[in-house]
Automatic annotation (TrEMBL):
Protein name per the record: U three protein 23
Compositionally skewed regions (Basic residues) per UniProt: 264-273
Organism this protein belongs to: Clohesyomyces aquaticus
Cellular localization per UniProt: Nucleus, Nucleolus
Keyword Nucleus: yes
Gene Ontology biological process terms, A to Z: rRNA processing
Length: 291
């Protein structure tokens, strides 16, 4: 098998797994003509089926197709023994005098939905044409000693697209419900009319809460960070004006002459008289200073 073909088959079976839940081992339902052509081309049917579906398989054959092998003109006992090793699919047509055709038998087994997830391996063009109308049915056939898997049919494409759209809508619906946590779900009718009325009030309250207009932030240049701005220094004039009458400069001319323009009164230093021995003597209160 070529590398590109094997890669394409792997992607195809992956799509069947995701959309229709196919799992290994795949149940491959073969008909009598497919078994005969594989033996005529000397092909290892089970091994090539594994390579085609890119996984483990479980070969199966219906009771009607088994009877076709017994009733064949060129009856091959070895081929019949090989077909007996496959799992027998009970189609409940063994009570009939003549076996049904592969188209009728496989159509009854697969049904309208292929709920058992069969992979159909058939050489009958009518069988493959009918199976294309059923979504989710992989088809395999032999063409000149090469086993080929058909691409996905139109009905299968439509079913896959419809399933993807449903999943997408469900995801959007879940997001909308998650975005409204205040809105409560309605309870079942079994809880009574009182619970139902309370639930409806809560829904209205949540809807009104959501309907309130939210404050919009004005767009524009933002001011500087208040923590990074230095505090303004108070001016002396403003401080003097704030004090008002509490501050009055000294109008004594002598004090003003000694202190200059500062207007502040200077303290006079009193000299103490010296006594005997050059030591200073404390002056009595009211005694004039000898110096």
């Amino acid at each position: 098998m070529k590398l590109k073909r094997g890669k394409a088959y792997r992607k195809l079976m992956n799509q069947y797994q995701v959309t229709f839940n196919f799992r290994e081992p795949y149940q491959v339902l073969v008909d009598s003509q497919f078994v005969q052509d594989a033996a005529r081309f000397k092909m290892d049917m089970v091994h090539l089926l594994k390579r085609t579906v890119q996984g483990e398989i479980k070969p199966m054959i219906t009771q009607c197709d088994m009877r076709h092998l017994y009733n064949a003109e060129d009856k091959d006992e070895q081929l019949i023994l090989q077909a007996k090793t496959y799992e027998r699919r009970r189609c409940n047509h063994h009570e009939l005098g003549e076996p049904l055709s592969s188209l009728e038998c496989l159509s009854a087994v697969v049904g309208n939905t292929n709920k058992n997830r069969y992979v159909i391996a058939s050489q009958d063009p009518k069988v493959r044409e009918h199976m294309r109308t059923i979504p989710g049915v992989p088809l395999v056939y032999i063409n000149k000693s090469v086993m080929i898997m058909e691409p996905m049919a139109a009905s299968t494409h439509q079913h896959r697209d419809r399933d993807e759209r449903a999943k997408f809508k469900a995801g959007l619906k879940g997001r909308r419900l998650a975005a409204q946590p205040n809105q409560k779900r309605k309870r079942d009718d079994e809880e009574g009319d009182s619970a139902k009325g309370h639930n409806e009030d809560s829904i209205v309250e949540g809807a009104s809460r959501d309907a309130r207009p939210q404050k919009k932030h004005k767009k524009g240049p933002k001011g500087p960070n208040p923590l990074s701005i230095k505090k303004p220094k108070k001016r002396e004039a403003s401080s003097a004006a704030a004090h008002g009458d509490c501050y009055k400069p000294d109008t004594n001319p002598e004090v003003a002459q000694e202190g200059g323009d500062s207007g502040k009164r200077k303290r006079r230093r009193k000299h103490k008289p010296k006594g005997e021995g050059g030591e200073s003597r404390p002056t009595a209160e009211g005694e004039p200073d000898s110096s």
